Amino acid sequence: MDTENLALHKPTWQSGDYRSYTGAERAVDGRYTDLMWYGGQCAVSDDNQTTVEWRVDLGDVRSIHHIVIQYATDNRMLILLR
What we know:
Elements: E1 12-14, E2 54-56
């Protein structure tokens, strides 16, 4: 089955951006080769936040099969077992 990134380059919003270079738009830019929090490819919330809201406007009602969230890993290798 082919998959499509419905959120790619769509408008985003996040409560509590950490700094101007860690905004919500980084989560939908399609880049994920530098997963350091300051690497310019991760949306980062402000320190001491217990809850942060992140939104993406898909532009229309869409059927969604699954959602993938890639966390900042500080570029450490993660092994996921399923």
